[in-house]
Each structure stands twice: as structure tokens, then as C-alpha cells.
Design goal:
Blueprint: E1 9-13, H1 18-29, E2 33-38, E3 50-54, H2 62-74, E4 79-82, H3 99-127, E5 130-135, H4 149-169, E6 174-181, H5 187-190, H6 195-203, H7 207-217, H8 229-240, E7 251-254
Parallel strand pairs: 1-2, 1-4, 2-3, 4-5, 5-6, 6-7
Helix pairs in contact: 1-8, 2-3, 3-4, 6-7
Length: 262
């Protein structure tokens, strides 16, 4: 299927690894030009049709600077993928999670998207078309414990924002959707400082055992495995396509069957 993304201009935040890198590659495979932002961009070197921009997206001016680079290079922005985000496990629960930690989670997972979206909407409105895909999380509505309480609140805010933007800017030709992954096989879960390693250190078990215990504790996967970044990217790119232009205000879950309710 032709997703009609050839020669489209896409901006991807948090593009240097994990889901963001997979999204960047998938968009290029569909013929898009990608302006890819991240603190470090060495993993993007040599990728055809990718303009890598090294910058701090958590800085108040960072997201707008990335959008400006896309406009300078290509004169327009057709697609925005708000992927950048971060989580710190709160193993001591809500009462040990400070205002500063909640604020950090909101800055990393919500305000980065707010600022990039604000910068991209003007050019999209002028052209009467555009797609925004926000990478949220099942933690936006699924919190089995307090380990990601601030992250979940920030992602819930992102889902809520997306629905509001879909209503306001749908008449202007812009569709806005969310993708909410469950656990994904990235450094966030499996890296040296990821969820499994952090829980392992706190509980005195090895990382593999910790990973199995955490997954079992949240209900397990119907598929028996983590989602891959490429699977998330496939869904993101589909929602970025003009072919799904009348899909807006939706939140698509990709979690291997983790969430058991409808």
C-alpha cells in the first residue's frame, strides 16, 4: 500500500534511538524527508533523506528550534511525531515523589510535545493539511503501582491534549492521534539503566528475573513478548499518512495484549 508520504516533510523528536529511530527509518522508507531531533545524533549519521539536529528538546526553546530547522530546509512541515520522553522509576511510591519530580516528568513528556505542536501548527494551518502523532503510553490509563506515577500523569495529559487538538484543528485539515505502547524492547526497559536493571538493583535479583517479575506483576503479555520499536513505528507512520486523514482524536494501543479490558 502506498501511504502517500513520498516527499512529505516529517519532524521526529527523540529520534536517535528506540521508537524514534525506528519511526525515522520507517518514514524514510516511505519516501519522506525527516528532520530528526535529539541530544545526540550520531546514530542518524549517513541516513539518506534525514536532517539530524542535535539540540535539547527539554529546553523551552528546543522544540521550536527544531521546527524552524525543518522550515528553513524544506519550507513546510507535513508530519510531526512527538516521540521524545523519559521515565524514572518511583520505587518508593507517591509519598516519596516530589513536586520537582512530577514537574520533570511533565516537562519531558508533555511540554516538549506542547511546544513542538505549537510551533508546527501555524505552517500546517497555512497549508490546510498536516498530521500529528503523539507517542503516549499505556501508563496514561494503566497504573498497576506507583512506579511510573508521574510519567503516567504526564502521558495522560498528552492523550487529553491530543483529543482537544483533534477537535480544534480537524476543520483546518489536521489530524491528531496518539499511539500508546506497552513495554517495548528498548533501552528504557532493557538497557543498563532501564526498568529491569533498576528493579533488579532494588530487589537483589538479576535483570532477567526482575524483567520477568515486573511483566508478570502487570498482567503479562498475550503474545509472550515485548513489542518491537519497528512495530510501534509501523502504527505511527500509518497514522501520519493522508490515507488515515479522517482518523483523528484516537489513541491506539500496541501492548502485546497487556491490557485485558475493553
Amino acid at each position: 500500500m502506498d501511504l502517500e508520504l513520498a516527499d512529505k516533510v516529517a519532524v521526529v523528536t527523540g529520534a536517535s534511538k528506540g521508537i524514534g529511530l525506528a519511526v525515522t527509518r520507517a518514514l524514510v522508507d516511505e519516501g519522506a524527508h525527516v528532520v530528526a531531533g535529539a541530544r545526540s545524533t550520531s546514530t542518524l549519521d549517513g541516513l539518506e533523506h534525514v536532517t539530524a539536529v542535535a539540540l535539547d528538546l527539554a529546553a523551552p526553546e528546543g522544540p521550536a528550534q527544531l521546527i524552524e530547522r525543518a522550515l528553513d530546509a524544506h519550507g513546510r512541515v507535513d508530519v510531526l511525531v512527538n516521540n521524545v520522553g523519559a521515565v524514572r522509576l518511583r520505587l518508593e511510591g507517591f509519598l516519596a515523589t516530589s513536586d520537582d519530580e512530577f514537574e520533570w516528568a511533565m516537562q519531558m513528556n508533555f511540554f516538549t510535545a506542547v511546544r513542538a505542536t505549537r510551533a508546527a501548527l501555524g505552517p500546517m494551518i497555512e497549508r490546510g493539511t498536516g498530521a500529528i502523532v503523539n507517542v503516549a503510553s499505556v501508563n496514561a490509563f494503566f497504573q498497576p503501582d506507583a512506579g511510573t506515577i508521574d510519567y503516567g500523569a504526564a502521558k495522560a495529559a498528552l492523550v487529553n491534549l491530543s483529543k482537544s487538538l483533534a477537535q480544534e484543528f480537524g476543520p483546518k485539515g489536521i489530524h491528531v492521534n496518539c499511539v500508546s505502547p506497552g513495554p517495548v524492547a528498548t533501552d528504557l526497559w532493557l538497557g543498563d539503566h532501564g526498568v529491569a536493571a533498576t528493579v533488579a538493583q532494588a530487589t537483589g535479583v538479576d535483570a532477567d528475573t526482575a524483567r520477568e517479575q515486573v511483566v508478570a506483576g502487570i498482567g503479562g503479555f498475550a503474545t509472550g513478548r515485548f513489542t518491537t520499536p519497528e512495530e510501534v513505528a509501523t502504527l505511527v507512520v500509518l497514522l501520519a499518512s493522508p490515507r488515515t486523514g479522517n482518523v483523528t482524536g484516537a489513541n491506539y494501543v500496541i501492548d502485546g495484549g497487556l491490557i485485558k479490558t475493553t
